[in-house]
Amino acid sequence: MSQYNVAFIGLGVMGYPMAGFLSRAGYATKVYNRTQAKAQQWAAEYQGQACETPAQAAENADIVFVCVGNDDDVRSVVYGENGILSALKPGAILVDHTTTSAELAVELGLAAQKQGNAFVDAPVSGGQAGAENGVLTIMCGGEQAVFDKVSPVMDVYAKQISLMGENGQGQRCKMVNQICIGGILQGLSEALLLAEKSGLNIEQVVETLKHGAAGSWQMENRAITMSQGQFDFGFAIDWMRKDLGFCLDEAKRVGLTLPLTQQVDQQYAELQQQGLGRMDTSVLIKAVAKDQ
Ligand SMILES: NC(=O)c1ccc[n+]([C@@H]2O[C@H](COP(=O)([O-])OP(=O)(O)OC[C@H]3O[C@@H](n4cnc5c(N)ncnc54)[C@H](OP(=O)(O)O)[C@@H]3O)[C@@H](O)[C@H]2O)c1
Fold it and tell me: What is the pLDDT of residues 27-49, one digit of tens each?
């Protein structure tokens, strides 16, 4: 058995396999999920204990990981009498993998510190496949000594883990990531529409270009499905709009305008109104095509 007791709160698309990697690596793992059936299912699949509240899972843990939806979802599992903070033992570390605002990361850092605990904001990139294959990229905000303690544990589901600075800087790095994804998808949408209208074979185009200067994760993993009109998988627009909201707020805070990000966000808002909020972000091509 590995040296730390760990807990994982939030067994969604991302959290379920991430918690599984911890258990498989030999950490004594307790899990909590709002919908209890998912926690029971997890405990049937992996070694570990399903708990009825976040506090129960956090009790006696050295490190508690969270991966839920948005800022308020995180607050609802962290605070209150059944929340994680109420049960953390002195010196235990709270790690949040949820994509949230940088303000929440700073708030949680202060709340943890106040009661003798530490906090790391640790949003991830790599999607469902990255979580299931244990190859996520993790960008962290927190103190070096705390990062040094949690990093080898997170390594079981990551291929790249970096400390970007103090609490909040992990979330700000994730904003940079999301801005890049929005811009790449806008470019890829326009490029694929032109390729199609010009009579090019899309598979041949992707095979030819993917290792050149225009190659990207989105081109390798999404170009073919985009051209086939398949979007019922992957990273949902609903999550992306939350994330782009953080990007636009942060830009405002530092006195920048982000015209392409604003345009992409507006197109996603329109797609949401058409009921496509749970579709993968590559569905952006539909909005670009509609404008022609
Ligand atoms: N999916 C991706 O490709 C991806 C990639 C990078 C980052 N992220 C980020 O990772 C986070 C999780 O994404 P996901 O795709 O795993 O989401 P998901 O599949 O929708 O799962 C969300 C999880 O959070 C729990 N939850 C939500 N609100 C809650 C609340 N108020 N109280 C307690 N539990 C709550 C859900 O519980 P229930 O089961 O009860 O609903 C579920 O376990 C998000 O911040 C997302 O932006 C996702």
Answer: 999 999 999 999 999 999 999 99
Q: Judge whether 114 counts as a catalytic residue.
A: no
54 contact partners, CB below 8 Å, separation of at least 6:
9, 32, 77, 78, 82, 83, 84, 87
**Do the beta carbons of residue 18 and residue 31 sit within 8 Å?**
no
Tell me the three state secondary structure of residue 7. strand
Neighbouring-strand partners of residue 63: 6, 93
> Strands (DSSP E) along the chain, which ranges?
5-9, 28-32, 49-50, 63-66, 93-96, 118-121, 124-125, 136-141, 158-165
pLDDT digits (tens, 9 = 90+) for 94-128: 999 999 999 999 999 999 999 999 999 999 999 98
> Which residue's alpha carbon is at the smallest distance from atom 35 of ligand 1?
68
- Residue of 30, 174, 197, 252 marked active site: 174
Whole-model pTM? 0.96
